[in-house]
Amino acid sequence: MFDIGFLEMLVVAIVALLVLGPERLPGAVRMAGLYLGRIKRSLADVRSQVERELGADEIRQTLHNEKIMADLAKKKPGESNVKRNITATADETRPEPPEVDTPAPAEPTPPVAVTAASPTDDDPTAPK
Questions:
Q1: The model scores a pTM over 0.85
Q2: Nearest to 85 by CA among 93, 96, 97
Q3: Helices assigned H by DSSP within 5-127
Q4: DSSP reduced 3-state for 33
Q5: Number of alpha carbons in the 13 Å side-chain half-sphere of residue 20
Q6: Closest by alpha carbon to 17, among 28, 6, 8, 7?
């Protein structure tokens, strides 16, 4: 993965022995191994999730393609998928609709004028 040879690993081990000392070196190597294992497992999990998603996308695409093919197979052989607009005069292609007697709409009633009532004697604000 990193293309590290035996000589490079030996140099790293000697430097680690000099820096950490013989008492702490085994614990440091153990911890480094644990962390590298965790990193490898998480990368493997991510890779498998991505592969599963890609597989799901491929399955969805395959199902979509099969649905389209089934729809095309249902159509008649001479039927086209593209609708074409044919421009022609109305009298050449379309027959005139038959005339139907429809009753005339009823005339609306005129609005009623609203008049104010005359003031009475009971109203004290009315002019006299």
A1: no
A2: 93
A3: 6-74, 90-93
A4: helix
A5: 14
A6: 28
> Under a CB-based contact definition with an 8 Å cutoff, are residues 74 and 66 in contact?
no
How far is Cα 26 from Cα 34, in angstroms, rounded to an integer?
12
Please write down the long-range contacts of 18-22, taking CB distance under 8 Å and 24 or more positions apart: none
One digit per residue, the tens of pLDDT, for the chain of length 128 reads 568 899 998 999 899 999 999 999 999 999 999 999 999 999 999 999 988 888 888 888 888 999 999 888 887 666 555 555 454 444 455 555 556 666 666 666 666 655 555 555 566 666 65
Residues 6+ apart with CB under 8 A from 34: none
Question: Mapping DSSP to helix (H, G, I), strand (E, B) and coil, where does residue 116 land?
Answer: coil
Could you tell me if residue 3 is left (phi over 0), alpha (psi between -120 and 50 degrees) or otherwise beta? left
